[in-house]
Write a structure and sequence with these properties.
The chain has 298 residues and is of the alpha/beta class. It has seven helices and 15 strands. Strands 1, 2, 3, 4, 5, 6 and 15 form a seven-stranded mixed sheet that branches. Strands 9-10-11-12-13-14 form a six-stranded mixed sheet, covered by helices on one side. Strands 7-8 form a two-stranded antiparallel sheet.
């Protein structure tokens, strides 16, 4: 490779936010935590899935906001404006976890991430592609599809100073195709705001993070809400950053906190040189999914 995918060092911060039923309070709390992170040098800050509301199918219609046509008015999407202003105030790239979105044109609801640049401009949106429909007898049953509709694209974002990143949401991490395509399109970092629960979190949270990093030899960040045992849904927490060698470099417990990691230029290339998967793949035996029919637009 002629140049590093990550062009210069980047401090990543994952805000494991404690959220409640008061949207304005959630937005205010997010602001204070993001400013805390940038005060410690973070250049890219991530908020968790459903950071502005409780998580659950019964809450999506109550807390939803209208994002289209873009830009929305402040009354249509207070979270959009809060994130935009915060990114500009903090002078940071900000991945706004996700918020419940309602499209009045289609009458559909989505689980949507908004990504802003340090000028406060919207860079990209990602609607959760794979909906969380599971039924583990005696443990948990949950069906996002009872209320939500899926997004229909892969989301890659170019941060001009640093390089490309990919953003997906929670259950999206279980589908390695998204990660593989992003990595082969030269992303150095995969970010997943996500709210695994106490069953799936214990089973697969760290495993999924390390698996996506190992398969693709890139950095991976998982950002969860803090756990609230008084809430209807109990998030796993344990936000973490994994390096391209699939080692956990930073993580937290279930309480509200901020996870920091210093991403180093050249690390991706060093790992790929030692274990050269990128020159050993046999596309004469199996297809390269990154060259298939891929949707980058809704």
């Amino acid at each position: 490779m002629t140049s590093n995918l990550l062009r210069k060092p980047l401090k990543l911060a994952l805000v494991q936010l404690a959220t409640g039923p008061d949207k304005a309070a959630n937005l205010s709390r997010a602001r204070s935590r993001v400013l805390e992170a940038t005060g410690k040098g973070a250049g890219l800050v991530v908020l968790p899935e459903c950071f502005n509301s409780p998580y659950g199918t019964s809450f999506f219609p109550k807390y939803c906001e209208q994002l289209l046509p873009s830009p929305p008015s402040e009354s249509q999407s207070p979270s959009y404006y809060a994130l935009s202003a915060l990114a500009k105030e903090a002078n940071v790239y900000l991945v706004g976890g996700s918020i419940p979105e309602h499209d009045p044109k289609t009458k559909r609801y989505y689980n949507t991430s908004l990504i802003f640049n340090p000028e406060g401009n919207l860079m990209a949106t990602h609607r959760k592609v794979h909906l969380f429909d599971i039924d583990i007898p005696g443990k948990i049953k949950f069906r996002e599809s009872d209320v939500l509709s899926p997004g229909n694209k892969i989301t890659l974002i170019d941060l001009p100073e640093y390089g490309k990143i990919a953003v997906a949401i929670c259950y999206d991490i279980r589908f390695p195709e998204l990660a593989t395509i992003a990595a082969r399109k030269d992303c150095f970092l995969l970010l997943y705001p996500g709210a695994f629960n106490l069953t799936t979190g214990a089973l697969h949270w760290e495993l999924q993070a390390r698996a996506r990093a190992m398969d693709n030899q890139v950095y991976v960040g998982l950002c969860s809400p803090a756990r609230d045992m008084e809430a209807e849904y109990h998030a796993w927490g344990h936000s973490m950053v994994v390096d391209p060698n699939a080692q956990v470099v930073s993580q937290t417990d279930e309480k509200e906190s901020i996870v920091y990691a210093d991403l180093v230029e050249g690390k991706v290339e060093e790992v790929r040189k030692g274990i050269p998967l990128y020159t050993q793949r046999r596309f004469d035996v199996y297809p390269d999914i990154s060259e298939g029919k891929i949707k980058f637009e809704e």
